[in-house]
Design goal:
The mean pLDDT is 96. Strand 6 (160-170), helix 5 and strand 7 form a beta-alpha-beta unit. Helix content is 34%, strand content 21%. The chain has one domain (3-304): Alpha/Beta hydrolase fold, catalytic domain (Rossmann fold, 3-Layer(aba) Sandwich), CATH 3.40.50.1820. The two termini are 36 Å apart. It has 311 residues and is of the alpha/beta class.
């Protein structure tokens, strides 16, 4: 498929009329759950330059969520912060590299990930289609809120400047970056790589790779459920959240990505509401989306918007 066709791709995603009402209700329910944050210093994982902490907090449905929090040992005044969000199958890492760059950093493990799977564990594959015909119990309802409440945890930290919080992630983490930036106005800058969870119904036609193929597998087993599946997914599609994004926003995609089709990346970029947005499209790259070739630009983006650095 030629690049102009990718750029002009029109998503089939339709935004439900009660989209805002639905998520407003979810947020009201989540707000009634106390955060109950817990922070444990990890001497084993810390080093001379970075303090590492194992953290926990409560989320919607009273699910206990785990994460890793890092901060530079040498600091003066409040720190800018980065929330890092995980991919679909990979486990969240310890974000020491962000601390070495001068940020407080939280890596969240939403429900179903290791250390957050005692109460909810649909497995991989499994997460993408768990209760996929019911928006009120679909897996990503809680999963999204788990990520968003990472912002609440950062706001409890005395050393964090709540006016300088950024969010980033790749693949599923890119999709979570979209929804978190849309729903949490505390986010001041965000970078989404090869965003998954954007254009679900487009992707199941554009690619036959997993994880999206889990949806096609489900539909082959339950052919009569297609309408209900499409209806549910519309409430969770990042494209439908994107118009709420107001912060400076970067998306980077690979033009040969067969996991998260680049067509959906272009559709997402057009939908982002921020006036300050940029898209990097890497020809010759797949799901890595050419990140290594633009790392300096990505670091400079956060430094500019969260540290006030001049580029």
């Amino acid at each position: 498929m030629s690049r102009p066709t990718m750029e002009q791709y029109v998503s089939k995603v339709a935004k439900p009329q009660d989209f805002d009402e639905f998520w407003g209700g979810v947020l009201e329910q989540a707000a009634r759950v106390p955060l109950n944050p817990e922070t444990r210093y990890s001497a084993l994982r810390s080093d001379p330059g970075v303090e590492v902490y194992e953290v926990f907090y409560d989320s919607i449905d009273d699910v206990r969520i785990a994460g890793w929090y890092c901060a530079p040992r040498e600091r003066s005044g409040k720190l800018p912060a980065i929330l890092t969000l995980p991919g679909y199958q990979g486990e969240p890492g310890i974000p020491k590299e962000w601390a070495r760059k001068g940020y407080a950093a939280l890596s969240v493990a939403p429900r179903g990930k290791l250390r957050s799977n005692a109460q909810f564990n649909p497995g991989y594959p499994g997460l993408l289609t768990h209760n996929i015909t019911d928006r009120n119990t679909y897996s990503y309802r809680g999963f999204y809120v788990d990520a968003w409440r990472g912002i609440d945890y950062l706001l409890t930290r005395d050393e964090v400047d709540g006016e300088r919080i950024g969010v980033t992630g790749g693949s599923q983490g890119g999709g979570l970056t979209v929804t978190t930036s849309a729903m949490r106005q505390e986010v001041r800058a965000a970078i989404a790589g090869a965003p998954y969870l954007c254009g679900y119904v487009d992707s199941i036609e554009l690619t036959r790779t997993y994880p999206y193929e889990e949806i096609n597998d489900y539909l082959r087993l339950h052919p009569g459920s297609r309408e209900a599946v499409v209806e549910t997914l519309a409430y969770f599609d990042g494209i439908n959240f994107a118009d709420k994004i107001r912060c400076p926003f970067v998306i980077y995609i690979g033009l040969q990505d067969n996991v998260c089709p680049p067509e959906t990346g272009y559709a997402l970029f057009r939908a982002v509401g921020s006036a300050d947005k940029k898209l990097y499209a890497a020809d010759g790259h797949g799901h890595d989306a050419g990140k290594h070739s633009i790392e300096a630009e990505l670091d400079a983006f956060f430094d500019t918007h969260l540290k006030g650095a001049t580029v």
